[in-house]
């Protein structure tokens, strides 16, 4: 459990807990208590929290991809490079940069002019829906928010994509099916988690904000995916798989 891979998984899991916690309480309040309103300040606090934890998740997924790439392509140098202090730096740096990035996004989104209806066709306060209800969006503000979104989502996605191209190229060159399967198994869980998160997030942002489909896809990547991720990573553990098979045999 002290290996870099499990360290990054634990940090990613912690970030997911914060991410879900920034959404679920207000969501339940809206659904159960039928309280459909949120204060202006509360809305932007949620924007900042979602942007911070969401973008940190994206960057941690990129860090985990880097870890897998290093393990597969440079196994002899892995232990020397992935020292404890370097692993901590790879976690702390994304957190710090994503907090700053989220604060910038929140500040410039708050600079929009909200003079019409302040009703959001969404379950939570996010950058996209807020931009949609704004009646005046200054070009500088729009550009700055777009840059923060590129840094928070697109940049880590590009890094993950490039690293996996490198990983897959290496795996294809490996001789022997057993060795290929072993190499692929080290990153299969991460590929699944990254695909689920980015797949639904990209679809949610591609669908027009006037369409109800967008907010339902947002529920998938903000609530459903974090709930499924522990099972995806747990099923890689041999002890868990063995226990699951024994339970299945008894049933």
TrEMBL record:
Location of this chain's protein in the cell: Cell membrane
Organism: Hymenochirus boettgeri (Congo dwarf clawed frog)
Transmembrane segments: 6-29, 86-108, 150-172, 184-204, 216-235
Keyword Zinc-finger: no
Chief place of localization: membrane
G-protein coupled receptors family 1 profile domain sequence ranges: 1-233
GO cellular component terms listed in the entry, alphabetical order: plasma membrane
Gene Ontology MF: a single term: olfactory receptor activity
Pfam families, A to Z: 7tm_4
Protein name, entry field: G-protein coupled receptors family 1 profile domain-containing protein
SUPFAM superfamilies assigned: Family A G protein-coupled receptor-like
Oxidoreductase is among the record's keywords: no
Gene3D superfamilies the UniProt entry points to: Rhodopsin 7-helix transmembrane proteins
């Amino acid at each position: 459990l002290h290996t870099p891979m499990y360290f990054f998984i634990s940090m990613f899991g912690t970030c997911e807990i914060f991410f879900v916690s920034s959404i679920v309480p207000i969501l339940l309040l809206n659904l159960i208590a039928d309280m459909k309103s949120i204060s202006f300040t509360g809305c932007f606090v949620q924007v900042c929290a979602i942007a911070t934890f969401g973008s940190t998740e994206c960057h941690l997924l990129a860090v985990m991809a880097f870890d897998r790439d290093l393990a597969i392509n440079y196994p002899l140098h892995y232990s020397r490079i992935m020292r404890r202090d370097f692993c901590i730096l790879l976690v702390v740096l994304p957190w710090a940069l994503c907090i700053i990035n989220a604060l910038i996004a929140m500040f410039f989104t708050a600079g929009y002019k909200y003079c019409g209806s302040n009703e959001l066709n969404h379950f939570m306060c996010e950058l996209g829906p807020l931009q949609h209800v704004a009646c005046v969006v200054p070009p500088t503000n729009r550009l700055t928010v777009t840059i923060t979104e590129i840094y928070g989502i697109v940049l880590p996605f590009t890094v993950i994509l490039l690293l996996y191209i490198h990983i897959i190229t290496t795996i294809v060159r490996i001789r022997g099916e057993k060795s290929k399967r072993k190499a692929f198994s080290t990153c299969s869980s991460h590929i699944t988690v990254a695909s689920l998160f980015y797949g639904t997030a990209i679809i949610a942002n591609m669908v027009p904000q006037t369409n109800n489909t967008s907010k339902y896809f947002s529920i998938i990547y903000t609530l459903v995916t974090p709930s499924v991720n522990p099972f995806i990573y747990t099923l890689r553990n041999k002890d868990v798989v063995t226990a699951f098979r024994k339970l299945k045999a008894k049933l």
